[in-house]
Each structure stands twice: as structure tokens, then as C-alpha cells.
Amino acid sequence: MNRCTLVMVSKKGEGQDHLSPCQVTGSGAQSARSESGKAQGRGGGLLPVGVGAVMYTWSAQTGGSLLYISIKPTLGAEEATGPAHPGWAWDGARGAWSHSCFSDWAAAIRVAALDCAEEKNQEVCRTYDVHFYPTFRYFKAFTKAFTTGENFKGPDRELRTVRQTMIDFLQNHTEGTWPPACPPLDPLQPSDVLSLFDSRGGHYVAVVFESSGSYVGREVILDLIPYENVVVSRALDGDTAFLETLGISSVPSCYLIHPNGSRGLVNVAKPLRSFFSSYLKSLPDVRKKSLFLPEKPNKAENSEVVVWREFDRAKLYMADLESCLHYLLRVELAAHKSLAGAQLKTLRDFVTVVSKLFPGRPPVRKLLEMLQEWLANALPFWLLISGIFLTNHVKWVGCQGSRPELRGYPCSLWKLFHTLTVQASTHPEALVGTGFEDDPQAVLQTLRRYIQTFFGCKECGEHFEAMAKESMDSVKTLDQAVLWLWSRHNAVNSRLAGHLSEDPKFPKVPWPTPDLCPACHEEIKGLDSWNEGQVLVFLKQYYSSSNLVDTYSADQRESSEGRALGRGEVEGQALTPPEKFRRDKDAESLRPPGMLGPRADLPQDVQHRLDLRLQSPRGPGALQEAEAAAPFLGVGFSSLDMSLCVLLYVASSLFLMVMYFFFRVRSKRWKVRLHHPAV
Ligand SMILES: Cc1cc2nc3c(=O)[nH]c(=O)nc-3n(C[C@H](O)[C@H](O)[C@H](O)COP(=O)(O)OP(=O)(O)OC[C@H]3O[C@@H](n4cnc5c(N)ncnc54)[C@H](O)[C@@H]3O)c2cc1C
């Protein structure tokens, strides 16, 4: 075996239901259901085979250590994806349960669980001599002979103690048995640090300076294991003169050497492990090693050009929200030729909520209101969205992915949902008269039904539904609704971390990260924890209309790519010229992830009609006319268009009436002639 293992076995029945994401109490009955059929089905992982087999299977496959820890007696695969066990998730790609607090350490030391209160595990527990609950068992890397593992002898069962014991245990390995994926954890000498200044490895080098009893440096080293382009080391604060030359006045501090040789102290709001780790993970070019992301095989297949748009992660982009609506209408809903019954009600409620709460530009809101009215009057939905609202244009900014198949629509849908819950909480009056005004869950329940009924990713819908069933009912205020969605989104993030769908440039981490919201993060007894009051303040600011930026949304109608426009400038812009429509590769290149299924194309006749209309050489007059148009979702209908429609309608009605009277009068005359042939 070439990793170490710890088993913790707990007594059954003592609650674990209120663990914070990084908390493991030691007193409960805890374990993953080790022979859960579902768990097996999800990749034939470690748990189905019990401790002994776990040790050797793990050892043979990966060469690291293992911490075996039990979390709840009834934990099945589907439960682990729910919120009852925050931080724990079945990781199908790696074939193991993982905890968000340790998942980055997994290449060096992994955590697993066994429930000795389960009858089927009793033999294993007897073999491994487990009598007390909880029991932690460590198994060293490269263990070949049978061993019952080493007992955990920490003073308490706090997660911080468990983490530190894991580190001590790792450091107990001798040179020959050191887990290969585990970086050196011993401190560097000042001379070693100096030599780093001269070496040019083409990557970042971070050195955490700390006191001898501190674990921060080692935790940051382990946190960064899965990341490339950065190497982390630690050094002690013994040599004060040396620290002074580096400008270090307090520890822990992190000193960073950039790939170009420049260097200096890292400036974080709080000198905590989570702040240092998050800062290093967010450095340019530092990204998760794409262990599970197969590279595209050759250049020809990889030739799609993605134009990268610079953006600010602290801002919300109108282009993302509007592109979300485009996609939602023209792909997700356009697939439904007709809607009736519960589906129609779900859509009506969803559109009502969006039309009342979407903090968009006036023409966009006007069109959303129109959509709501059309739905209320039961006009055929397919006609509405295919004839008027469709374009083939999406433009992701804050949701752009480093590859075309990553991020995009699902990202923007989350952003739309958060925006709606925040708007409902900050502007509750917007829903007055809709029937939703008195229900703090109304928006969440509407989003839930939308996801269940229409979201293209069925698996996502099932996971979301499981979370909703579990705890949506506990939401009693509009603020709680905001926090509920935030915490469930984080649960999804932690479940998907390292997953195939994760963009290495945008690793799935608890959000907001410390750099975005330092006040949201606290450390209590060494545990990362959230200050939910501050999180709420942050969410209300982040998802407010004042944080919405129109940059890039303007060029949906403009040819000058990337030009930043203020809100006033955006309104009333001309239609996108047809050439741009056809040349713009974004609509093609920024498709949603494959999981959402193929893109529904516009019916050809509709596309043809739109093209003809857009190509009409009406000269400057057309531009003026377009300025008066509502340009939302690409195709604007000006007042001239509408007047022509009405005129045509009136003319055809008159024509029909004239024809009617003409034939009536004629038939009367014939009748008179037939009855009086002599006349
Ligand atoms: C309802 C729903 C359920 C999903 N379920 C699954 C699933 O089961 N399996 C699957 O593979 N994919 C699922 N997805 C897709 C997945 O969650 C991501 O949307 C997708 O992988 C793209 O990830 P991303 O990096 O763009 O970040 P996303 O997770 O999409 O986040 C988008 C943006 O929201 C902000 N954000 C991040 N976290 C939070 C938070 N906690 N609170 C507020 N804002 C936040 C950040 O600015 C981030 O860039 C689901 C999507 C939705 C909308």
C-alpha cells in the first residue's frame, strides 16, 4: 500500500445532521453505507469492499495513504448528494467518498468511512479489532502485510485536530514509503529559500512563513496538490533578520515568487489557510490538473476559435443574463411545440416571476411583460418564441468557458436564479398582485418546478429536486430563500469539484471565495466557516442591479466587439446587422455543455423570414426605425412594423367583408330570378 489510511468507526444513532461543511464530530454513528448498491453502481468504488480490501485496492491503484472515517449509518449514494451531509460526496471519477475539506489532499491521504453498526460490516470490524466508536484508523502508504492500522490518539475529535493528525501521520512516513503525490512538508532553511529566488522554473513558488507549531503552511501545501503551475513550501520564523530582509513582520505570511522572477508578500485580508490557498489557486495560469479531462486528440478537432472576453469576477454581466433568456426560450422551451396543463402553469409562473423581478433594460422588461400576457391569453407558445423572440445569438462573458463545451447556459441559469431570489428579497413589492407576494418560498418553488419540468439536464434536475425535497420547506423568509439557494449551489459545487464538467480555469470551490468576500469567511477553532450574515449582505450586493454591467451586451446589436457601454448608451441601439449574425461564431462556439443535449435549431422558414427582414436594404431609414425597436432577443419590431401589421389586418378584414356582401347580394338576385322567371 502506498498511501496511508485512517478508519473512524462510530456508534450508530447519534446525530450528524447539522455538520457544517468542514465539520466532523466524533461522537455520532457514522459511516458511509459500505455495501450500498448505488455506491457500487457509481463506479465500483472503495466502500463496497470493507477495510481490508479498501487498503489493498487503494494501495494497488494509487499509491497514497487513506484516512478511514465514518459519517452516518444511513448514508447512501443518493443521500450523499443531498444537503444532509454537507461536504461529503460520492466522487465517481475517483471511486470514493470525499469530503470537501480533504478532497484536495486525496492524492496524498484519502478519507473513507465504515459503519461497524451494520451487520454486514461486523466481520471486517472484528478482524480489524474495532471496539469503540468512533475509531480512527490510519494505514500507511505502501503497506503490504496485514495490519489493523494505527489508532487515532488526538485529544479531541475536532476537525482541526483530525487534519493536524493526518499531517503528523503523513510526516511519519520514511523516505522509502513517502506517498509519491505528497509534496515535502518539512520546512525550508533560509538558504533554500534564497536559492529559490534565482531558479526559474516557469511557475509560481510560494513559501509560507510560520511559527514552528503552526500547521497553516502544511495545509496550504496539501490544498494545492491538485493545482499546476504553482509549488508551495514552508519555512519557519526562527531567523528574524532574514524575515526582515523579506519585509515579513508577522507570521503566518506567504511570500510569492512569480514565474518572471518578481517577488513579494501576498496580500490577503486574513492570514488564514483558506485565504492563502484561495489566493494561490486564483493566480493567472494556476489551474487544476486536468486529471479527468481528456484532451482533444488533434488540432483539427480542436480548431474552434474562442474569443476570450476579459471580465471582472466581482461583477454580474447583463450579457450572461440575457443570453440565458435567449437560450432558455430558443432551445430549452422551443423544443415544446405545445404546452398545456401543469407544464403551461409552470411556464406561466416562471415567466411571471422573471418579468416582475428581472432587473433588465426597459425594452427587455417590456418584452418579458408581453410574453407574460401572451401566455396568460393562451396564445400558442411556439408561435410566440419562434416568430418573435428567437435569435441565434448568445454571448457569455462571466459564464464563458475555457472550452466551448464548458460553462455557458447552466452557469447563467444559476446566475439568473440567484438574481431572482435577491430581487425578490430586496424588492418584494415587485410581486404584489401576482399571487406570489406573501409566500417566501414562491420564487424558489417556481424555479424548482421550472428545473423539474424544462431543464435539459435531467440528472441535474433530479439532484436539485432531492435537495429541494430535503430542505426547501424550511425556508421561512425571503432572506432565507437567498441563503438556501446559495448553500445548495455550494453543495452542487462541492459535489462536482474535479468532475468532468468542471472548467479547470474556474474550479468549483465554495463561493464567494475569500478574495471576493473576506468578511464572509471566518475560522472558528481552526475550521473554515461562513459568516452567513455577511454572505447575505454580499449576495444582495453581487446580484443587485447596481452590480450589473452592460459591457458586451451592447455588441449583441453592435459590430464593435468588446466596446464597453454605459446603461444609457445601450438602450435603443440598432439591430445587429445580418452579416454579423452570420459571421459571429459565438452562437456556434458557445454551445451549452453536451449534457444539455443538442442545440435545437430554428425552423428554416422562421430563420429565412428573419434573414429577409434583416437584409432588407432600407438604408438609413431602417436604422432610425430600428432605434425605436425593442431589440431584445435579437429581432426588434418597430412601430412601423406594427402599423403595417394593423393596416394589413384591417385591409384584409375589409376585403373579406366586401366579398361577403358581394356574394350575398348576388345570391339574393339569383334567388329572385329563379322565383320569378317571367320577370
Ligand atoms: C439547478 C442546477 C442544478 C445543476 N445540477 C448539476 C448536476 O447535478 N450535475 C452536473 O454535472 N451539473 C449540474 N449543474 C451544472 C453545474 O452546476 C454548473 O452550472 C456547470 O458545471 C457550470 O459551472 P460553472 O463553473 O460555470 O459555475 P456554476 O456552478 O454554474 O456557477 C456560476 C456562477 O455563479 C456564481 N456562484 C458560484 N457558486 C455560487 C453560490 N453558492 N451562490 C451564488 N453564486 C454562486 C459564480 O459567479 C459562478 O461563476 C446544475 C446547474 C443548475 C442550474
TrEMBL record:
It catalyses: 2 R'C(R)SH + O2 = R'C(R)S-S(R)CR' + H2O2. It comes from the Eukaryota. Keywords: Disulfide bond, FAD, Flavoprotein, Membrane, Oxidoreductase, Signal, Transmembrane, Transmembrane helix. InterPro entries: ERV/ALR_sulphydryl_oxid_sf, ERV/ALR_sulphydryl_oxidase, QSOX_FAD-bd_dom, QSOX_FAD-bd_sf, QSOX_Trx1, Sulfhydryl_oxidase. The chain crosses the membrane at residues 646-663. Its cofactor is FAD. Signal peptide: none annotated. Gene3D superfamilies: ERV/ALR sulfhydryl oxidase domain (1.20.120.310), Glutaredoxin (3.40.30.10), QSOX sulfhydryl oxidase domain (1.20.120.1960). GO terms for cellular component: extracellular space; Golgi membrane. Residues 555-570, 579-589 have a biased composition (Basic and acidic residues). Residues 402-511 form the ERV/ALR sulfhydryl oxidase domain. Coiled coil: none annotated. Belongs to the quiescin-sulfhydryl oxidase (QSOX) family. This is Sulfhydryl oxidase. It comes from Spermophilus dauricus.
